[in-house]
């Protein structure tokens, strides 16, 4: 089907993009999107070099995790993707990255504060930290959904981050904004106190975020 062919291509191309932008290394990270009009998602395969991916390597699974199409195993983080889709009906794409500055903050047990306006407008404000759990487990999936809430990104303790959105481009934007805010937070802390966006502005920007919800 033409829509499935296009979606597989989109997932492959976005996986190359997160590699190109330095948000992942090697086979780390994963990407997925809902297949519109079908009860399934398209997700990157497990432990596959993004540079070697073909459209046919993208795996189609239903919402129980059963493989519908594809000769490779789906990403080890499939449980996390499925749990997010189950809870967040407003989003249609998920990208999991291991970007350096987001990982640095996640390793300290801290959150990413609202240091730039776009973090509030596009992602929803301060980025929470999901409690650590073994990668690929249902516990990590549960922890992730709990910390994500209604926002478009979440940190994973000692692991990485998740960006979500109404489509793959929106999910990628969430990842990039969080990495930028994380970088600013780390650098700003070297000079002393990190000042956040004033509370009165956050209230206004929260309304903007609600209008842009899901991407």
- As residue ranges, the low-confidence spans are none
Distance between the termini: 26 Å
Task: Give the SSE order as H and E letters.
Answer: HEEEEHEHHEHEEHH
Q: Could you estimate the helical fraction of the residues in percent?
A: 40-55%
Describe the structure.
It contains 7 helices and 8 strands, in the order αββββαβααβαββαα. The model has no long low-confidence stretch (mean pLDDT 95). By secondary structure, it is an alpha+beta fold. It has one domain: L-fuculose-1-phosphate Aldolase (3-Layer(aba) Sandwich), CATH 3.40.225.10. It has an 8-stranded mixed sheet, sandwiched between helices. The protein is globular and about 50 Å long.
Short description:
With 215 residues, this protein is α+β, with helices and mostly antiparallel strands. It has helices at residues 2-20, 78-87, 100-108, 117-123, 138-148, 168-189, 199-212; strands spanning 30-34, 40-43, 59-62, 67-69, 93-97, 129-130, 153-156, 160-165. It has one domain: L-fuculose-1-phosphate Aldolase, CATH 3.40.225.
Topology:
Elements: H1 2-20, E1 30-34, E2 40-43, E3 59-62, E4 67-69, H2 78-87, E5 93-97, H3 100-108, H4 117-123, E6 129-130, H5 138-148, E7 153-156, E8 160-165, H6 168-189, H7 199-212
Parallel strand pairs: 6-7
Antiparallel strand pairs: 1-2, 1-5, 2-3, 3-4, 5-8, 7-8
Helix pairs in contact: 2-5, 3-6, 4-6, 4-7
